[in-house]
Amino acid sequence: MTMSLQVPTPLGDVRLEGDGPTFRSLMPPELCFQGIGFGGYSAAIAALAGFVQLPGRTLRSIHAVFTAPIEPGPLDVTANVLSAGRSCGMCEITVAQKGTPVLTALAWFVDPRMMNDREAPATQSLSFNSYDELPWVVEVAPFLKGLNLRAIDYPLTEDTFCDGQGRVALWAVPDAAASADRRAAEISGRLTDIMFFDAFLMDSGLRTEPAQTRMISLDLSVIWSTGHEAPAPTLLEADGRIDRQLATTQGTLRDTTGATRASATSQCRIFRA
């Protein structure tokens, strides 16, 4: 029987159809930037496909490799379980378009009892209320509007973006994503984290480059520190290092208690005018 799954997130619904291990999905036109599909959304599709194949598990980590640009339109998704032990399972996911692989991912899923629901709260809570909003980012990439971004260390205008700083720090205060149960809320939070990381990790490197420089993500690796976490106000802090025509970026997500939610790395290819 064909399955149809739709997980709401602040950046839009992530959808899968199929009977496993083969699924169909879609790169919506509204989730594209300059005609190229948002890589964070395709990585979220891959994570969801693995989630379906390993029921009852929590997504612990994912390493997604972007192998070709994605256009708006249909996607073919294959999720093969490589390991399914009593406590841990690994899934390999391939996303293809028009017969060409555009993303390959390895994802670990674990028994929820192996992870804490939340780390112990930090001694000082964090607040996003006093920071400036970033309407210009939404003008450039409208699909990010559901994150409601607040700048800590992030340019307040597009014209001042290339200011030489090799880091970013900003809050996402996401619109509520309706979830029927705890497990659905958790995977919605995981997918949101993936997209938040992919959207802004590379900016830590781009800030050090001239305005005409372009950068694309070659991969994204995320590991979560806690279990059940629905989409919630989240602080991203990231640093970038340029190595000639490549960039290395790394960052963490923290919640309003100051506890670490997830960490990530990404390597990027630089194209200079």
TrEMBL record:
<dbReference type="InterPro" id="IPR042171">
    <property type="entry name" value="Acyl-CoA_hotdog"/>
</dbReference>
<dbReference type="InterPro" id="IPR049449">
    <property type="entry name" value="TesB_ACOT8-like_N"/>
</dbReference>
<protein>
    <submittedName>
        <fullName>Thioesterase family protein</fullName>
    </submittedName>
</protein>
<dbReference type="InterPro" id="IPR029069">
    <property type="entry name" value="HotDog_dom_sf"/>
</dbReference>
<dbReference type="Pfam" id="PF13622">
    <property type="entry name" value="4HBT_3"/>
</dbReference>
<feature type="domain" description="Acyl-CoA thioesterase-like N-terminal HotDog">
    <location>
        <begin position="34"/>
        <end position="110"/>
    </location>
</feature>
